[in-house]
Amino acid sequence: MKTTKPKQISRVYTRNNLDEKIKEPTLKILSQVLANLIDLSLITKQAHWNMRGSNFIAVHEMLDTFRTAIITHLDNVAERSVQIGGTALGSVQGVAANSQLKEYPSDIYDVQDHLVELADRYAVVANHLRSMIDDIKDPISGDIIQGALEDLDQYLWFLEANIDKQH
Ligand SMILES: [Fe+2]
């Protein structure tokens, strides 16, 4: 059983000479983004598998396209962390401790219920990325964040546009 929170990001030596004053805060941001994106990729499959009802096949297939893109983005985030001397945390224990998302319900089935729960969480991740754009001083990490945000804003729109009763 887990008794401790995952460690802070361990650092490793690199010849990459990005200013230390930029590296440290960038790693913090990337670490948060990584946990959020892994969580989002997992719950997207949770919904993909368990949803039922009208419009099932369209939403079911749409979610797989989201997940494929999210995995590409989170891989970019993890690998940028390592390039600048960080350690990428990809275990479920690390993600559970670090993700900003509230737990995804395991007792919902209706397509519409899943769309609402997903939209709530896609919004958290997208809005967090947006809030970080001005803070990130490493331009390469900034491009990665920007790319993830472009897709997540679009996916949030797709989710919301599939919700029958807007709320
Ligand atoms: Fe599938």
From TrEMBL:
Domain (Ferritin/DPS): residue spans on this chain: 28-165
Keyword DNA-binding found: yes
Name of the protein in its database record: Starvation-inducible DNA-binding protein
Cited Gene3D superfamilies: 1.20.1260.10
Keyword annotations of the record: DNA-binding
Highest taxon of the lineage: Bacteria
Family matches, as SUPFAM superfamilies: Ferritin-like
Pfam families in the cross-refs: Ferritin
Keyword DNA-binding among UniProt keywords: yes
Family: Belongs to the Dps family.
Gene Ontology MF term list: DNA binding; ferric iron binding; oxidoreductase activity, acting on metal ions
